[in-house]
């Protein structure tokens, strides 16, 4: 039998989840892809510690809001990936957390595949997961939560926002809510969620989860607005709502070095 002639690998782009920031939370697969890459497109929320693993000779293109223009247009990002991959470069698209959780990874993968490219996806630890763990709380608990709901607090232009009152009815059946991109709308979100969850429901806001400058507060839906203002919490942050947080405010502060814990 003759050996099959080598079929050329089609141009490939790897969407890599960079995790919440702490480079120790990268998967081995992500680390390998990052080290091999010759062109790396990087979002804002990718931690500096993660970028240290990129080889020096690689071309690094910041494509987030801090990368130059206010926000790099999506079609420019996609065109760049296609051109570089077709040139034979090993293209990695580095995204904060997991590429398929609120990261537009799905849209990018679709467009790249439509252009005839092969797309590989490497999971990362999503911010909501890291945020809960950073507090020492579980996302599910046999007594308090038999599921988790991940939602975005940010409405896409022209589309209607989530119905927070209706969501509070669902969550009241025993789900932990993890809200991404919600700090700017925290007052509105808390108002809706109070309807079925009650004002005393525990809430945590975790900013820069997993990074040395992480800040967080544990409070209640009723006190959320005051807490966010007083502690000056802002983006990037995850809001966690649910009984899995019960008793956390009373726990000793996490011992991680450099961690600023803010008890409400
Ligand atoms: N794909 C990412 C989410 C991108 S959307 C993931 O899986 O984590 C951007 C939002 O993610 C931010 O507005 C914030 O809500 C959240 N986020 C990302 N990194 C974070 C971090 N280190 N700490 C807290 N929230 C974070």
From TrEMBL:
Its EC number is 2.1.1.107. Residues 12-224 form the Tetrapyrrole methylase domain. Keywords: Methyltransferase, Porphyrin biosynthesis, S-adenosyl-L-methionine, Transferase. Pathway: Porphyrin-containing compound metabolism; siroheme biosynthesis; precorrin-2 from uroporphyrinogen III: step 1/1. GO terms for biological process: methylation; siroheme biosynthetic process. It holds the Pfam family TP_methylase. It is an enzyme of class 2 (transferase). InterPro entries: 4pyrrol_Mease, 4pyrrol_Methylase_sf, 4pyrrole_Mease_sub1, 4pyrrole_Mease_sub2, CobA/CysG_C, Siro_Cobalamin_biosynth, Uropor_MeTrfase_CS. One of its GO terms (molecular function) is uroporphyrin-III C-methyltransferase activity. The keyword Transferase applies. It comes from the Bacteria. NCBIfam families: cobA_cysG_Cterm, PRK06136.1. Belongs to the precorrin methyltransferase family. This is uroporphyrinogen-III C-methyltransferase. It comes from Caldimonas caldifontis. The lineage of its organism: Bacteria, Pseudomonadati, Pseudomonadota, Betaproteobacteria, Burkholderiales.
């Amino acid at each position: 039998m003759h050996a099959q002639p080598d079929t050329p690998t089609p141009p490939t782009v790897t969407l890599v989840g960079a995790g919440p920031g702490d480079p120790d939370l990268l998967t081995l697969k992500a680390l390998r892809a990052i080290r091999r890459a010759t062109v790396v497109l990087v979002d804002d929320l990718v931690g500096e510690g993660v970028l240290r693993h990129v080889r020096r000779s690689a071309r690094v293109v910041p494509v987030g809001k801090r990368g130059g223009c206010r926000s790099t247009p999506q079609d420019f990002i996609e065109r760049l990936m296609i051109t570089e991959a077709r040139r034979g470069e090993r293209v990695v698209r580095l995204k904060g957390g997991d590429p398929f959780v609120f990261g537009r990874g799905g849209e990018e993968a679709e467009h790249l595949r439509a252009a005839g490219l092969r797309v590989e996806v490497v999971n990362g630890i999503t911010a909501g997961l890291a945020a809960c763990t950073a507090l020492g709380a579980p996302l599910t608990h046999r007594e308090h939560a038999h599921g988790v709901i991940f939602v975005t607090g940010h409405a896409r232009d022209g589309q209607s926002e989530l119905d927070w009152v209706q969501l509070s009815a669902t969550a009241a059946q025993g789900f932990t809510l993890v809200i991404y991109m919600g700090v700017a709308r925290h007052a509105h979100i808390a108002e809706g969620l109070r309807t079925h969850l009650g004002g005393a429901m525990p809430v945590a806001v975790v900013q820069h989860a997993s990074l040395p400058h992480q800040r967080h507060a544990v409070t209640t839906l009723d006190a959320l607005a005051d807490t966010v203002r007083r502690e000056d919490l802002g983006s990037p942050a995850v809001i966690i709502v649910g009984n899995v947080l019960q008793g956390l405010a009373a726990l000793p502060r996490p011992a991680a070095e450099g961690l600023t814990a803010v008890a409400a």
